[in-house]
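so my prof wants the structure for this chain in the C-alpha cells format not the other one, which i didnt know existed until like an hour ago. anyway here's the sequence
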Amino acid sequence: MKKLSDSSPDNSSDEIDTELEIQKGVTSDHDEKSTEQQNNLNESHQAITGEQLDFRYIAYDQDIAILGSKGSGKSYLANKILQSLNGINVWVYDFNFQFHDNKGIVFHNLDEFLDAWNISKHGHFILQPFDNSIETFKKFCNALFKNGNCVGIFDELHSFVNKFSQLHEYNQIILSGRPRGVSAISVSSRPASIPNNVLTNCKHVFAFRLNLESDIKFLEGYIGSDVWMLAQKDKRKKMLDAPEIAQYTFFYRDMDSNKGVFAKV
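here's what i got, hopefully its the right format
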C-alpha cells in the first residue's frame, strides 16, 4: 500500500495507514462522460493512515471541510488531497501561498489563470493572487461555478465569507454546485466564523487542533463532543479525562455516519 507521504509536517516519520480512495463523480447535467471518467470510478491513490480511518471521496459530488488553528496540519492535509486528485480538474484559491503540486500550474493574476484554463480545459490550476480582494474571490467563484466539472479548494475561507456575509458567488457553489459537477474543499482556521451551510452540506469533515472555545462549541453541534479533545486539556469543558492529543492529530467524520475517528498526518 502506498503511504500518504514519506514525512509529516515536521519531517518526522509519522504517517497514516488507511487507503485513500478517490472517485470521480460525473453528473447527469454534463455530457463530459469520457471513457477515462467512466473507467476510473474506483481509483486507489495514496494512503492517509489511521487504523480505522475510511476516507472515500467522490470528486465533483462531495464537499470537504478542513478546519484547525494555524500550524495544526490542515494545509498539509489539503495539499495531500490535492496531489491525490489524479485526472480530476481542480482550481485552488491559495490565499496564503500554501499549495504545491508538481502537476499544477501556479498563477498570480486571475485573468491569466482564466485565459490559460480556457485553452487547456483540464488539470490542476492554483491561483496565488497578488490582488487578494473580495472582487477577485467573487470572480474566481463565479467562473468556477460556470465552468462545472471541477473541484474548488478555498484556503482561509473565513477571510471572505462569514455568518453575516455569505457571498452569493461562493454560496451557489455550496448550495447548487453538485448538479453542475462542482464540489468544494473549504479550509479555515476559524470554523465558528464560516457560514453554517458549509458544514451542513459537507460529506467529510477534518478538524485539527483548536484553540478557541467558540470554534469547539460550534463544531460540537456538527461532529460531537469528541471535538473537545482537540483543545489543550486546560481549556476543555468536556472530555476532561481524555489524554492530550499529539501534534498534527485530527478528528475525521463522515457526516453520513454516527461517529468519527482520530488520526494523524
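also thought this was worth mentioning. The first strand starts at residue 19 and ends at 24.
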